[in-house]
């Protein structure tokens, strides 16, 4: 007998708490890599983000739905850790704290909590930072610089000696994540280790990520003809955070379509929007906004692309007159 649990995992073999626990485990390699490159600040930013997400979800649920017991499903911890991985290590705690409150209260709890939110809370929080604290999101530190510098946690301004631009296209740097960028999005190897964890636990739905990466791969040729080199392509995936987005954000059960055909089309359109924004707009916008824009279309996909009911030509049952 299946255990009763929160949406969208009512019919899943694993309860929601177990699924989100393994997502946390899959994010652990990228987090450890971020700590290795950027030091104690990653630990503190992650603690602030995850604690704020969890406490906000808890108190908001108790206040708004006192008749329902609070289920610890770890979704708030996943959102908090994803947010911490997508910010520069020089970000201030205040910025991350406000972003976590925005994602928890206005993006998640305002729509009914876990399983009912329209937008991905972590990506919405990152978009909030891009508008509210743009200067902090631009100042990116070099790896191994200021490992114990805690002043940035209050000011959000890194020291001049720790900021730089890394134009080296070494395969070892690209694969390991030793690149100037956000905390935990640059290491291809570590993120792929997280993919293996999800795949081994049968928690990875490949349709949306497959469509996303196919669109990026084949769209890279016309959009970046002057940079037709394999090393630059993988550098672009790493620094832009596209690999983390494709594997974790597009694998979200709540904000992506239910039907495999819908998820595949969802991924293709997201990839095309990413290419357009990356080429003609802001690179950080290209990381988060295509997914958020497509999150709005998920109800449309679920309305017209849904597994049909047994012996019926369409998914819905005709209303008996």
Describe the structure in brief:
The chain is mainly α and 321 residues long. It is built from 15 helices and no strands. Helix 1 (16-38) runs antiparallel to helix 2 (40-64) and helix 3 (75-85) packs across helix 4 (93-108).
Number of contiguous helices: 15
What is the terminal-to-terminal distance?
35 Å
Largest sheet: none
The CATH architecture can be given as Orthogonal Bundle
The helical percent reads 55-70%
Number of strands: 0
CATH topology, by name, is Ammonium transporter fold
Please report the first level of CATH classification, the CATH class. Mainly Alpha
Give average pLDDT, whole number. Answer: 85
Rg value: 20 Å
The SS-based structural class is mainly alpha
Q: State the domain count.
A: 1
